[in-house]
Amino acid sequence: MGGGGEDEYESLPTHSVPIQVHLTAGALAGAVEHCVMFPFDSVKTRMQSLCPCPETKCPTPVHSLMSIVKREGWLRPLRGVNAVAAGSMPAHALYFTVYEKMKGYLTGNSAGHSNTLAYGASGVVATLIHDAIMNPAEVVKQRMQMAFSPYGSSLECARCVYNREGVAAFYRSYTTQLAMNVPFQAIHFMSYEFWQHVLNPEHKYDPKSHLIAGGLAGGLAAALTTPMDCVKTVLNTQQAAEADPANRRIFLQARYRYRGISDAVRTIYSQRGLSGFSCGLQARVIFQVPATALSWSVYELFKFMLSFEGGHSS
């Protein structure tokens, strides 16, 4: 029965898979990718922000995570996860759908190493749509993740950001996000398809190959694009810490406005030097490798199951 399922899945060319299959599988993959490894994303945000916090002095991301839990409780690394879950499901639904349709259009539904540039171009188009939806959720998520974050909930954070800084605040890092994600997704998709050709040349549903190819692709893309991720974090958080000597507490102030990429780059370099652009690299890779592996595994699993059901029922 398993073999028949694979044959039937394989007999479905990309263009014949219903769009709702891509949308559903993509939404589920997005939720898994962003939520399962979310605590390490919180560590990465703190290490990249210009707000001084104890986590920047920890030797590894795992030590940083334990530091947050010890000082602020078990649930602290999960603050902002509801915002990213709400944004990632529609963003990834369109992201995978646009990628699949563009890939089918550019390659004529053929597979092979000769289509590498087509995979990259399809990833770029998918990224433009994904980031337009995801950027506001990223802003709320990263402000919730900050040490000393004053917001009680993601909705409160979104409301406060809107009231104080306007709609523009949710898209201040959009060009940076694109500058980072366009090469990230191009590398990611080209690497994934490359490893699929190597590990799974028949392009059947194969959980192990999807897991390995996804992890390798995500880790490589994450490592190469960390500098722009540092800039994005600074633009999203817009905060620095100030001490109040009267009661010895530290508050986050949003008085420093980093208006664009060049402003953020100058500030990072002046405060941390060149090493400031590699902050959070370990945490980013530790987050991205399993997250991308799980995302592709979930996406391919549900695409296989939903396509098989659709083909079986028809």
TrEMBL record:
Superkingdom of the source species: Eukaryota
Keywords: Ion transport, Iron, Iron transport, Membrane, Mitochondrion, Mitochondrion inner membrane, Repeat, Transmembrane, Transmembrane helix, Transport
InterPro entries, A to Z: MCP_dom_sf (IPR023395), MCP_transmembrane (IPR018108)
Location in the cell: Mitochondrion inner membrane
Broad class of where this protein is predominantly found: mitochondrion
Any one annotated GO CC term: mitochondrial inner membrane
Keyword Protease attached: no
Stated role: Mitochondrial iron transporter that mediates iron uptake. Probably required for heme synthesis of hemoproteins and Fe-S cluster assembly.
This protein's name: Mitoferrin
